[in-house]
Write a structure and sequence with these properties.
Helix 1 crosses helix 2. The longest helix is centred in the middle third of the chain and has 23 residues. The chain has four helices and six strands, in the order E-E-E-H-E-E-H-H-E-H. A three-stranded antiparallel β-sheet has the order 1-2-3, with no helix packed on it. It has a three-stranded mixed β-sheet with strand order 4-5-6. A hairpin with a 4-residue loop joins strand 2 and strand 3. Helices cover 31% and strands 32% of the residues. The protein is α+β, with helices and mostly antiparallel strands.
Length: 154
Amino acid sequence: MECRVSWTGGLATRSGMGFVAETGSGHTVMMDGAPDAVRPENGGQNLAPRPMEMLLAALGGCASYDVVLILKRGRHAVEGCSVAIEAERAETDPKVFTRIHMAFEVRGAGLPQAAVERAIAMSHEKYCSASAMLGRTAEMTTSLTLIDSKQAQP
């Protein structure tokens, strides 16, 4: 796996702290820093996600992928999965994540709550590499809202 991240600020772009990541799989992702009121030349223009936001997005993608795959392999009728992530960071540098809460919302026809809870736990404890790494500095918690699409229909 590889990735190349390049600063775009030296190219007379709108943001002095913009970056483009080019992944080994051939995709690009833009990132930008927060504006700096004291030294504008050292800040971004809020034109793209910040790098630390990308870490949370990666965590959400990794964990959601695991949950859906585990449920599908168990032949459960999963129809939707999303996760809202809230995080706190340390006050001093390095400002690592110290607390992360992942609120899952999973929808499906007659999904057993125990199976969904097990899928979330398995992702966190065994499969999600992002969770394993971020869990070294952050207290990680999860919650689940389970929506039964069979009951939601009239």
